[in-house]
Amino acid sequence: MSVRELTYADALREALREEMLRDPNVVLLGEEIGVLNGVYKVTRGLLDEFGPDRVRDTPISEAAIAGAAVGLALAGMKPVAEIMYMDFLPICMDELATQAAKMRFMSGGQLKIPMVLRTQYSLGRQHGAQHSQFTPSWFFQVPGLKVVAPATPYDAKGLLKSAIREPNPVLFLEGGLLYRTKGPVPEEEYLIPLGKADTKRKGEDVTIVGVSRLVGEALNAAKKLADQGMSAEVIDVRTLQPLDLQAIVESVKKTSRLIVASDDIKTGGVGSEISAAVTENAFDYLDAPVIRIACPDTPIPFSPPLEQQYMPNADKIVDAAVQIIGK
Amino acid sequence: MLQKMLLLRKFEEKVEELFLVKGLLIGPSHLYLGQEAIAVGAMMALEPTDLTVTTYRGHGHALAKDVPANLCMAELFGKSTGNCKGLGGSMHVAIYPRTGSLYATAIVGSGIPITAGVGLGLKLKKSKKIVATFFGDGAVNTGAFHEGVNMIALWKLPVLLFCENNQYAMSTPVKRAVSSPSIAERARAYGMKAMVVDGNDVVSVFVATKAAAESARRHSEPVFLECVTYKMKGHGVYDKGDYRPKDEVAKWLEKDPIKVFKEQLLNRKLITQAEIDEVDKATQREIEEAVSFAIQGEPLPFEQIKSYVYAEEPGA
User: Fold this and answer.
1) CB distance A61–B88 less than 8 Å?
2) Closest CA–CA distance from residue A91 to any residue of chain B (Å)
3) Is residue A214 helix, strand or coil?
């Protein structure tokens, strides 16, 4: 198998292109995705290759972009809609959470909504309080939606291809800081199933569950811990809904300690959910409190030094690990 | 046509009785009484294969779009024999894709962007079908309406928009909620063909829809039809509508679409009173059968509801 180094953005682009070549019903819509090639260049060249019927620039109408994706799915198409920033998702919350996610259920199984809504969060890019938020818990609380958050180019490509083939609405969360990161991606086609976590590093003393950008930080933390003689296992959840709880629980049974690292707000976030679920399922195996490494409960500050202090990182994970490994 | 209108009327009268007299139905239920000419006139002018996206006031749309009355009634009773297996209820009874009754939303305005998407899908697939959406005067003040109407006009989608202006958004009269002199004017501002139709005259609705459907189907030109009508009763089954002036209600009851249509047919000797009585009786029988069908059904076993959250089959 031949493998190249691709950026996260190019890996996503390959996934879109391959699925568009495979299935003529796959269409893209969103703001600035066509003529401008996408704000993050994920859709670069696709307008030229597939034409304006399949790569559609839309007005700034987030509710209607999401609603139109729902309607396209109802009409038998496979829409992949792009919402430029995760902060704009509340504008289309009704169409996504109250319409798309519930249609199959409310119709007694008559309807099927195969749609993907891609978006990204820009924490760490000095975009301020309204262009940086990572708010997955607003969405994984919605039965009927699937929520995916890849951390590497390899996962980004394989998961997006699977998401496009899903018969359900999928919210696909990309990391704004990840677009230019590089990683190995095979030339050959592959898929990664939704709902399967990936153990990115094996270890014995503590389990670090990472989400999106913080998978990389968790791996950096694991290296630093190894230098200090401690062994950390790093699990990338990859999909938040459905969550591969079994993989996390199995790891915790081995390490007896858990840290959850995610770029969302600490209160009621991903870490809270995973912590509660692990407590319910593996309480007897835990030797220390579960630690959440997440953002503090304030809006995101613009000031670059303040934002740096605000963000979770490898050092914060290391500090937490050192504290609990002694216990 | 008259038979359909009577079916809608008698269904709602029965629903009202089951709620208020017999106490057999509970939950919100938004009756279509007085608006029958719109759903019936429109659906009869559309092709049976055309699609509809409607709302929580959808019993009438469902029946007019050929969702069987017994399935609708069972859905209202929350039984597994209902078209949505009792998981949708009154507000989603117009979801029955096999007759083209594609979707019914309970969130005001949200159906319009969805309709834009359905229309876009039909256009991309070069389908001969068109999609019609129905919504109330309340919807025209939502953001979703404006975003959706703009897209439909901008992309020239094969869509008909039926605004059922029944004069009140819950208890708020149009004059206290809509800034523009007419609702149709709003659609014109987006560069869309728009007309005002007497929503209590089934023939007017039929004729207007025929022409509009032609424009949408042949030329992918969307058309907005503001159908002026009146809720005979309140917003929901428990609402007496006391906030409306008595003389206004009396004036509109004179324009009851079924009464008007019967008079037209009798005056032109297109039907006899005996024939009307016959249709009346047959329709009443259909409704009674729908009620017994609904009562006989069972709710879905609770442990099964989880299986309706996600589609399991792999995407094609």
Assistant:
1) no
2) 10
3) helix
What are the φ/ψ torsions at residue A291 (nearest 5 degrees)?
-110, 135
CATH class assigned to A3-186: alpha beta
What is the residue extent of each domain of chain A?
3-186, 198-325
Q: Please report residues of B whose CB lies closer than 8 A to that of A143.
A: 309
Query: Residue B125 carries which DSSP code?
Result: T
pLDDT digits (tens, 9 = 90+) for B28-39: 889 999 999 999
Report the C-alpha gap between A180 and B213 in whole angstroms. Answer: 49
Instruction: Spell out the alpha helix ranges (H) of A151-263.
Output: 153-165, 213-227, 245-255
Question: Could you read off the pLDDT of B80-106 as tens digits, one per residue?
Answer: 999 999 999 999 999 999 999 999 999
Are A261 and A213 in contact by the 8 Å Cβ rule? The answer is no
3-state secondary structure of A179: coil
Q: How many domains does chain B have?
A: 1
Residue type, A18: E
**Secondary structure of B179-242 in HEC code, one letter for each residue:** CCCCHHHHHHHCCCEEEEEECCCHHHHHHHHHHHHHHHHHHCCCEEEEEECCCCCCCCCCCCCC
Would residue B316 count as lying in a domain? no
Reported as a single tens digit per residue, the pLDDT across A175-192 is: 999 999 999 999 999 999
- State how far the Cα of A117 lies from the Cα of A80, in Å rounded to an integer: 6
Shortest Cα–Cα distance, A29 to chain B (Å): 11
Closest-CA residue to A97 (of A88, A86, A85, A89)? A89
CB contact under 8 A, A64 and B308: no
Stretch (H or E) spanning A7: strand A3-7
Facing B113 at nearest CB: one of A23, A27, A63: A63
Q: Residue B113 and residue A66: Cβ atoms within 8 Å?
A: yes
Structural domain span for residue B169: 2-296
Has this prediction a pTM greater than 0.90?
Answer: yes
Do the Cβ atoms of A260 and A293 come closer than 8 Å? yes
Q: What is the 3-state secondary structure (H, E, C) of A248-263?
A: HHHHHHHHCCEEEEEE
Pick the catalytic residue from A14, A82, A95, A131.
A131
Does some domain include residue B14?
yes
Q: CA B118, B124, B129, B130: dihedral to nearest 10 degrees?
A: 50
CATH topology of domain A198-325: Rossmann fold (3.40.50)
Topology match between the domains A3-186 and A198-325: yes
What's the CATH number where B40 sits?
3.40.50.970
Whether pLDDT at B153 is above 90: yes
Q: How far is CA A230 from CA A210, A226, A253, in A?
A: 18, 5, 17
For residue A78, the chain B residues in CB contact (below 8 A) are: 315
The verdict on a CB contact (< 8 Å) between A77 and B125 is: yes
Residue B26 lies in a domain: yes
Q: Which of A62-66, A259-263, B16-20, B40-44 is predicted least confidently?
A: B16-20
Name residue, tokens 């996504």: A96
- The whole-angstrom separation of Cα A39 and Cα A42 is 8
Does A112 contact chain B (CB < 8 Å)? Answer: yes
* In-domain check, residue B309: no
